[in-house]
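USER:
Working in pairs, take the chain set out below, taking as long as you need, and write a paragraph about the fold.
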Amino acid sequence: MTDVAHLPAAPHDSWQWQTRAACRNLGSGRFFHPAGERGEDREERDAAAKKVCAGCPVRTACLEHALRTREPFGVWGGLTEEERRALPKRRARALAGRS
């Protein structure tokens, strides 16, 4: 018999968490920096994004998605791309559900 335990979930199930995300209707500008944004402007935008993430009911699922897909841009699950890359590999795998 074929082991189907590791097959991906149905697309609807895989993305259902997004319907409950606190950022759902806020637009992407708060979560993805424009080209060339640096310094205080970027820090302020990141802080505003993280404030939304802090109260989000699906923050963990969002972060797991970003880690699993190696999302290269934006704030996901309360972490910037730099913060996600800085996570130790073991911790990132555990957060992404691949421990």
About this structure: The chain has a mean pLDDT of 84. The two ends are 25 Å apart (CA to CA). Residues 39-54 form the longest helix (16 residues).
